[in-house]
Specification:
Layout: E1 2-3, H1 5-12, H2 16-28, E2 33-35, H3 36-42, E3 55-57, H4 61-74, H5 79-89, E4 94-97, H6 100-107, E5 114-117
Parallel strand pairs: 1-4, 2-3, 4-5
Helix pairs in contact: 1-2, 1-3, 4-5, 5-6
Length: 119
C-alpha cells in the first residue's frame, strides 16, 4: 500500500478514517510505502514518528524518469502525484489518498495500480 501526502496529513490530524486505515494495515501486516516526494511535501518538522509507519522509498533516477513519463503521457504537472503512481506501479500497490482525481487519471495509464479515497 502506498500513502500519499493527504493520508499523512490526516494521520497527523488524527482523523478517524486515517487512524482506522493505519490500524487495519498494522493488523493485516500490510507493507506501507511512503515515497520520499510525499514526505517532502508533507514534512514541516513535526510528528516524525509518522515516518516509522512504513518504508521510506527514495526517489531514484529510474523512478523520476517513470514519473516524468507519466506527466508527459497525461499532460499533468504535479510531480509528487506522478511519483506516487510510479512508485506504486513498481509493486502493484493500492494508493490511498484524500484527493483521488489526478491520481486516478495518472493510475489509468499504468497496470496494477488502484486508487482509493480516504473518507
Amino acid at each position: 500500500m502506498t500513502f500519499d501526502t493527504g493520508v499523512l496529513i490526516a494521520l497527523e490530524r488524527r482523523k478517524s478514517g486515517a487512524l482506522a486505515l493505519l490500524s487495519a494495515c498494522r493488523k493485516s501486516r500490510a507493507t506501507i510505502t511512503l515515497p520520499a516526494t510525499v514526505v517532502m511535501e508533507w514534512w514541516r518538522g513535526s510528528h516524525q514518528a509518522l515516518l516509522e509507519i512504513g518504508i521510506l522509498e527514495a526517489l531514484t533516477p529510474e523512478l523520476a524518469r517513470r514519473a516524468g513519463e507519466l506527466l508527459a503521457k497525461t499532460g499533468k504537472s504535479n510531480a509528487v502525484d506522478a511519483s506516487v503512481i510510479a512508485s506504486a506501479a513498481q509493486r502493484g500497490d493500492l494508493v490511498v489518498t484524500t484527493d483521488p482525481d489526478d491520481l486516478l487519471e495518472l493510475a489509468a495509464t499504468v497496470r496494477g495500480v488502484d486508487v482509493a479515497s480516504l473518507a
